[in-house]
Automatic annotation (TrEMBL):
GO terms for cellular component: plasma membrane. Belongs to the two pore domain potassium channel (TC 1.A.1.8) family. One of its GO terms (biological process) is potassium ion transmembrane transport. This is Potassium channel domain-containing protein. InterPro entries: 2pore_dom_K_chnl, K_chnl_dom. The chain crosses the membrane at residues 44-69, 145-165, 177-198, 241-262, 268-290, 302-323. SUPFAM superfamilies: Voltage-gated potassium channels. The gene is 20216956. GO terms for molecular function: outward rectifier potassium channel activity; potassium ion leak channel activity. The keyword RNA-binding does not apply. It is a multi-pass membrane protein. It is found in: Membrane. Keywords: Ion channel, Ion transport, Membrane, Transmembrane, Transmembrane helix, Transport.
Length: 346
């Protein structure tokens, strides 16, 4: 009797123990997956915060902005071009009907009527240019939109870099709202990324300057000067300020030549002016590559301008990093000479 009860109780407890074991295994498996997810998440975040990760993140964010603003604003631009085409045809027909309705064609009478028609059309063109951003292009298959993918990508770059050329701006409520949130995320991301990338480039350039450029200079010096320089206490080799200034001037000069040759109505002076205004993030917007009425190679010009802008900002960050360190050393030396800094405390 007792044996049967014991067997019955044992059989009843076996399923319960099996369920507990299964729950324990599931809990352990879930904890293991959770730990692995945290490890992979840390690795992913570590990669994003690296130089390569920040470059990929900033590039992806810019491309995403290009697709986003192209999707939002391109339809509005197409509708604007169609409205201009319709209005032009309407005013041409009105002018022709007015001319036909006059039995006797007197120049003064016809001029008065034609002036009113043309004045109305002029006001229409002015308003649609100012309010809807019409750029003078008609809607046809060969014409490129201002809000093409490349144009939208350049707009995204000018937003997150705070340059803001102003040659194009969102004309829809959706585009304006998206611009606000896109800038709120993109501006801090751009500042952090460009600063980090610029610091990384400064480290590489400092290494190259110390081991290659200075090595070549030592070969050109005579033995006496080399021995004199080697007898000094070893110190960290800083890049002179004039080298950084030459890099900036050379990059502006290169951009001036490229844009001066590419844009038909630009010269080297205008190209230099545009490059300086762009890299200094002033961004007047009075000169923008690919913004002329000639649509030939306009998209390639916008891509070149985008690349020039991104690389130029990183180069500026690198040069500022190099100049900051050298300027600090010069100020310390100057402070010692005039007695503002005690050399014993340094």
């Amino acid at each position: 009797m007792h044996e049967n009860n014991w067997r019955t109780g044992y059989k009843n407890n076996v399923p319960h123990e099996t369920k507990v074991i299964k729950k324990t295994k599931k809990s352990l498996a879930w904890r293991t997956k959770k730990k692995l997810a945290i490890i992979y998440l840390k690795k992913f975040l570590g990669f994003l915060l690296s130089t390569l990760g920040l470059f990929i993140l900033l590039t992806s964010y810019t491309i995403f902005g290009g697709f986003l603003f192209h999707r939002i604003e391109s339809s509005k631009e197409v509708q604007t071009q169609l409205d201009v085409k319709t209005s032009r045809a309407y005013h041409v027909d009105k002018l022709w009907n007015t001319t036909k309705s006059m039995n006797i064609l007197f120049r003064q009478n016809w001029s008065n009527v034609a002036s009113k028609i043309l004045r109305n059309y002029t006001m229409f063109v002015f308003n649609i240019t100012k309010c809807d951003g019409w750029n003078g292009q008609d809607r046809n298959e060969s014409a490129e939109l201002q809000w093409s993918f490349t144009g939208s990508m350049l707009y995204s770059v000018t937003v997150i870099t705070t340059i803001g050329y102003g040659h194009i701006a969102p004309k829809t409520d959706e585009g304006r709202v998206v611009t606000i949130f896109y800038a709120l995320v993109g501006i801090p991301l751009c500042i952090f990324s460009v600063t980090h990338i610029g610091g990384f480039m400064a480290t590489i350039f400092r290494f190259l300057y110390k081991n290659i450029f200075c090595g070549l200079c030592c070969v050109c010096f005579n033995k006496m000067k080399r021995q004199k320089s080697f007898s000094r206490e070893p110190s960290k080799k800083d890049v002179p300020i004039y080298v950084s200034l030459l890099l900036i001037a050379g990059y502006i000069g290169l951009g001036a030549l490229l844009f001066g040759l590419w844009e038909n109505d630009w010269n080297v002076l205008i190209g230099s002016y545009f490059c300086f205004i762009t890299l200094s993030t002033i961004g007047f917007g009075d000169f923008v590559p690919g913004a002329s009425l000639d649509p030939s190679s306009s998209q390639e010009k916008l891509v070149l301008c985008t690349l020039y802008l991104i690389v130029g900002l990183a180069l500026l960050a690198m040069c500022f990093d190099l100049m900051q360190e050298e300027a600090r050393c010069l100020l310390k030396t100057f402070g010692k000479k005039i007695g503002l800094i005690n050399s014993e405390k340094i």
